[in-house]
């Protein structure tokens, strides 16, 4: 049986690839699904060539440590592609590695679909030329990406954001609060310090300090911390209840959220939860990023809004009293600041498209694989 090969290297990509795999299986696509990914892909029916848990890193410095592993994995992939059984390869995010894989697949003659393409609108725009040469189809998840890629000769389709598929199961406010043990009248602050160990280590003390400052200002404030399933926090460093794998429930329950920059900012927009964004990184990584990154905001929610809808505190700007000043009016359900932000977040939510991204990507993959089979 011919194969569709998935490649991703992080937990978010694992979830998105798993969604596509489930749709392919549900549609009875006549392909064996194999790939490099994690537990969610495996549970969805993908036979793993290699587990991605040893690959996921962040930062320009940390990635150097995994170069030998990535090189060995690339050789494994090339051998698999040369076997001639792969009808199409689906690359999901993870650009530093997947851009190399795209070139290898192109050289071998295997068509490439790239789902969640590199953030060329932010930095390394030279990748646009490489994408045009190596990728047969791009499935993009941000509304402004389709035109940018098409203008550079890349066959791109905006498929909507996969968060919207998860959002169909978001509980209402009352149910979310009940699930987390909060009362209807409680004022609730949610903390999202990061989905990776390194991020949490860099953010946690400041995030807790912000919550402590707001507790001094707002009597009876409730605080909850949302964590990825694999992240652990020393309870001595965090005095608040921690909830795993329930970001949408936490955002629905909260009056406002303090979020590390990333996809969580879009989750907050989808959930309609006002937020403030922060990010701190290794000093060398920050120096490199400041030199390379060409966009005015770090928060995806602000990039889609086209303005600084949500306050951002980056690196040394992350000072707990200043962050507390920005969050305090958002925790007041009657404030003008909160009302205006909720309206802006609703517009961002509308710009993300409609649910069904995984289904649309699966259809694109099946079409690409079928085209390749007919060409043989």
Task: Describe this entry's structure for a reader.
There is one protein chain. With 376 residues, the chain is an alpha/beta fold. It has two domains: 178 residues, Rossmann fold (3-Layer(aba) Sandwich), CATH 3.40.50.2000; 181 residues, Rossmann fold, CATH 3.40.50. Helix content is 47%, strand content 16%. It is built from 16 helices and 13 strands. It has a seven-stranded parallel beta sheet with strand order 3-2-1-4-5-6-7, with helices on both faces. A six-stranded parallel beta sheet has the order 10-9-8-11-12-13, sandwiched between helices. Strand 8, helix 9 and strand 9 form a beta-alpha-beta unit. Helix 9 packs across helix 14 and helix 11 crosses helix 15. It is elongated, with a radius of gyration of 21 Å. About 2% of the residues have low confidence.
Oligomer: single chain
Q: Counting H and I runs of at least 4 residues, what is the number of helices?
A: 16
Query: Strand content of the residues, in percent?
Result: 15-25%
CATH superfamily of the largest domain: Glycogen Phosphorylase B
């Amino acid at each position: 049986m011919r194969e569709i090969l998935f490649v991703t290297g992080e937990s978010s990509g694992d979830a998105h690839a798993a969604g596509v795999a489930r749709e392919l299986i549900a549609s009875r696509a006549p392909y064996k699904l194999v790939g490099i990914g994690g537990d969610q892909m495996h549970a969805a029916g993908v036979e793993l060539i290699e587990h991605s848990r040893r690959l996921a890193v962040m930062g320009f410095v940390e990635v150097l440590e995994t170069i030998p592993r990535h090189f060995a994995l690339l050789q494994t992939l090339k051998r698999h592609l040369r076997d001639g059984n792969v009808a199409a390869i689906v690359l999901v995010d993870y650009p530093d590695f997947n851009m190399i894989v795209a070139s290898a697949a192109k050289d071998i003659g295997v068509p490439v679909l790239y789902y969640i393409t590199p953030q060329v609108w932010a930095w390394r725009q030279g990748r646009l030329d490489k994408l045009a040469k190596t990728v047969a189809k791009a499935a993009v998840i941000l509304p402004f990406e389709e035109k940018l890629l098409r203008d550079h000769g890349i066959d791109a389709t905006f498929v909507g954001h996969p968060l919207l598929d998860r959002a169909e199961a978001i509980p209402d406010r009352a149910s979310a609060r009940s699930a987390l043990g909060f009362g209807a009248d409680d004022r609730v602050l949610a903390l999202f310090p990061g989905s990776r160990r390194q991020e949490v280590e860099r953010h946690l003390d400041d995030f807790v300090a912000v919550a402590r400052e707001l507790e001094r200002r707002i009597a009876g404030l409730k605080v909850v911390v949302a964590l990825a399933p694999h992240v652990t926090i020393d309870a001595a460093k965090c005095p608040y209840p921690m909830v795993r794998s329930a970001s949408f429930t936490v955002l629905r329950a909260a009056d406002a959220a303090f979020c590390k920059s990333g996809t969580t900012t879009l989750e907050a927009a989808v959930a309609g939860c006002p937020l403030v964004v922060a990010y701190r990184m290794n000093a060398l990584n920050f120096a490199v990023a400041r030199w390379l990154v060409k966009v005015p905001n770090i928060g995806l929610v602000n990039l889609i809004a086209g303005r600084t809808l949500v306050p951002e505190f980056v690196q040394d700007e992350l000072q707990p009293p200043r962050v507390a000043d920005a969050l305090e009016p958002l925790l007041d359900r009657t404030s003008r600041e909160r009302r205006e932000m909720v309206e802006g977040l609703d517009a961002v939510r509308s710009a993300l498209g409609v649910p069904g991204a995984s289904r649309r990507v699966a259809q694109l993959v099946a079409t690409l694989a079928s085209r390749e089979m007919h060409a043989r």
